[in-house]
Amino acid sequence: MAGVVGEVITDSRSVIASPCELADAGGMVLSSGSCLRGAARVFFVLTLASGAVVSASGQTGTGSQQTLDKATVGMSTTPDVAKDVTKRPTSTPYSGDLSIFEYPDRDKKLQIDRVMDLLGITPGKNVADIGAGSGWFTVRAARRVGPAGAVIAEDINPLAIEYIGKRVLKENLPNVRTVLGSADDPRLPSGSVDAVLMLKVYHEIAHPVPTMKVLQKALRPGAKVGIIDRNGNGADHGLNHEVVVKEMGQAGYKLVGTYDFTKADGQDYFLIFQVR
Fold it and tell me: Per-residue pLDDT averaged across 237-253, rounded?
């Protein structure tokens, strides 16, 4: 399969669409996989004989983008959730109409340019959008980092991955890569990102402490992790920020910034963490 490079993922349970067979340039058939096809893009997951899974995109890129494409994720193991002592409600991950995230004044309400400034998202940086949904933040980060940077759009919903794949193709953003994560592992390449944003996602993580420990492997030195969420009890699509700070501390992070400008309703907050 000339020109296509992939990222190794270690959970053979990942499924994206109906099974298909893809042959490489040498004629070898890689089966037991699944694929999503766009007009000029193929995103697929193939289960290898070893049980590993390879995620690949038909997109190509330069600089930071090629580095991400060649990085292996596979050595990132699934967290030991049995050791997670978190005892609190969580919200069911959203799986409905993705267009609801695209309301016209969202940029203004969240002040997303200020968010990116505080996270150090500048041209040439690598960024991860965890729980990317419709790709609302993905496309804004991709434009900010430019062709020398890259954005990884991660989601556990295969339909979101498909949605984003079509969107970045339509909007001509070749510096975006998609990754199908699992509930307890975002499956990002090791040492791949300078900044992470989790936009209204943290309250959906069932095992936050081990999951955020796994995320550390993807962070470069000095990387910042931003969490935008709303106060709540965990089950109402929100989580009190004191709980987030406590759990992130248990996962090995320190709080380096607290802001309340992301909405004027007194419910939303923006926290920034770094690895201790």
Answer: 96
